[in-house]
Amino acid sequence: MSGREPAPRAVPEIGRWRGSVYCAAVGTQALVALAVVVALGTPVGLGLAGPARGSAAAGAWVVAGLALLGLGLPCVAIVLARLGWNGAAALLERSPGQPFEVRLRELRTLTRPLAYAVVMVTIGGVVALVVLLLVIAAVVALLSPWLTAGGDEVVIGPVTLSTTPQSVLAAVCAVGLLTGLVSASSRLARVHCAVVLQLLTSPEQRLQSDLTATVRSRARLVRAFDVERRRIERDLHDGVQPQLMSISMTLGLALAMMPPDAPGRSDVMRAQHQAKDTLEALRRFVRNIHPQVLIDHGLGAAVGELADTLPISIRIEDRLGDRLPAEVETNLYFCVAELLTNVVKHSGATHAVVRLGRPGPRAVEVVVEDDGHGGAGIGRNDNSGLDGIADRVAALDGTLSIDSPLGGPTVVAITVTAPEGTVHD
Amino acid sequence: MRVVLAEDNTLLREGLQLLLERSGFSVVAAVDTAERLLEVGRVMEPDLVVTDVRMPPTFRSEGLAAAVTLREENPGLPVVVLSQYVEQSYVAELLDSADGAAVGYLLKDRVSDVADFADTLRRVHAGGTAVDPAVITQMIKRRRDPLERLTPREREVLAVMAEGHSNAAIARRLVISEAAVVKHIGNVMMKLDLPPNDDQNRRVAAVLTFLRGRSPEQ
């Protein structure tokens, strides 16, 4: 999966040092948030545990504290959630997309930030405190050899260091501890990112982003098909066709040098005919893969040439004017080719019209109309070509409409957007 | 006859060169890009240019464009374009230069009929027009409606005539008498609303102008 696409479930590997910096930042956030929450909650503590100044005063403290918490917590939650989201997005190198959104009129939208804040202040706060204490202890232990050398005693929690061997041992342990913390940090960062994505994105958002990714990937696939078609066409045109032609030419030269009654002349002639027939078949095949005229002369000319090869009468009304972007031309060409093939194969029509036009400055419309017996639609086995067209049109973000009553006529219209007055690249 | 040849595929270029030289032409330059074609076309003063359509660097219709440019600079320079495909848009582009006199558009396959190919080159050099029969067939198909008035035989005559053949050659090809050819051509001209004209090239040009002038993409 490419890193550009938002896909909230999978959290990729994170580098050790980036993880450490990230954990330090998130830990600081958690500690600050914890401090703010504790400060806001202090009046509650005072009211509950303060010296007996009368129950009314205690009650007033508690009410004031709860009010402060009630107002302050959402603010803390929103700030914390936003920081957490941006941090995770930066770490995972994702486009931040649209994260949670808080609307004051809809209290429901506060739920996710609040849940995130609660997790961060409780579990996150505890983890951050423990890690902070461990880091402080490790730094002190690292400095202890100098302190004990000066005759001081170093106290780290329950441990007291007074001799140089003790302090050197402690410093070694501290180095091990710090190394362990740094290497654990990438895992911790992943856990945090997972928590952020889980708590701050709703299932709808995840579906939405999955859908966006799918639409983009479909467009990429269609584009890749066309690139591949062009490559195959070029390979055949530049490789196989000249070789066959060269054989045919050599046979022609041989024939020109042969007296009319030379033995084997008829065999050479037959070989030349075979080479010609093969070339003819190959030419038809190549042109179906990707017509050169589409690149040189555009959609109208390419559709015109295509119509000439079909057995029914087809009128082209080309009112496109300027050339369209290459991708649009290619997609529309194959849509028209598929539609005309359907008309010939299934509709029983004797006449068809292809109208190419620009109903608006940014719109391109292709209409294929036939006088057949109708009944065409998407998702039916006999017209599976229409599904392919629907896919192409969807990849171009266009619309496809099929009007095909039983008895006909069938009108298929495709509308896509394209910039005005574009030049074919 | 001094010929300049442009074809990017080495195999085909060498084959064509051999073929032309064996048929009595003198290939003064054989180049592989449209740019080089323009250069040698200006410097070498060839009697005839034979070029591929699709050439480097972009592999679109560079060869055709270079040939048209040379004809603009040097009106009447005979040009034969060889193509892998029957594409009327290219033919139209070519015929629009100097009214289609002394131009040819042939499918590459025709090259293997050595004598026929050499004959076509000479006809174009002499100021004739030579359009590949496959292209004519397609043009006729496209101009179906007015051409429906023609009998099958008249359509055949029209197709061969558009290739630039003389009445005698048409008669030989279709195995009919020359008098019959003259009669058929008279009918074709009348049915297609083309004024009779003795000059053969103008006759072909007139037919082709008619054929492409009302094709849908114009």
TrEMBL record, chain A:
The protein's Enzyme Commission number: 2.7.13.3
Catalytic activity: ATP + protein L-histidine = ADP + protein N-phospho-L-histidine
Enzyme class: transferase
Domain of life: Bacteria
GO molecular function terms noted in the UniProt entry: kinase activity
Record-annotated Signal transduction histidine kinase subgroup 3 dimerisation and phosphoacceptor domain positions: 228-294
A Pfam family reported for this protein in Swiss-Prot or TrEMBL: HisKA_3
Keyword Cell division attached: no
Keywords recorded for this protein, A-Z: ATP-binding, Kinase, Membrane, Nucleotide-binding, Phosphoprotein, Transferase, Transmembrane, Transmembrane helix, Two-component regulatory system
InterPro entries (UniProt xref): HATPase_C_sf, Sensor_HK_TwoCompSys, Sig_transdc_His_kin_sub3_dim/P
Keyword Amino-acid biosynthesis part of the UniProt annotation: no
Parts of the chain that traverse the membrane: 21-40, 60-85, 114-147
Protein name as catalogued: histidine kinase
Species per Swiss-Prot/TrEMBL record: Nocardioides yefusunii
Automatic annotation (TrEMBL), chain B:
PROSITE patterns named in the record: HTH_LUXR_2, RESPONSE_REGULATORY
Keywords, alphabetical: DNA-binding, Phosphoprotein, Transcription, Transcription regulation
Pfam families in UniProt: GerE, Response_reg
Keyword Ligase: no
Domain (HTH luxR-type): residue spans on this chain: 143-213
KW Cell membrane (keyword) present: no
SMART domains (alphabetical): HTH_LUXR, REC
SUPFAM superfamilies: CheY-like
Superkingdom per UniProt: Bacteria
Ranges for domain Response regulatory: 2-123
Modified residues (4-aspartylphosphate): 52
Signal peptide: none
Gene3D superfamilies linked: 3.40.50.2300
Protein name (record): Response regulator
Native organism: Nocardioides yefusunii
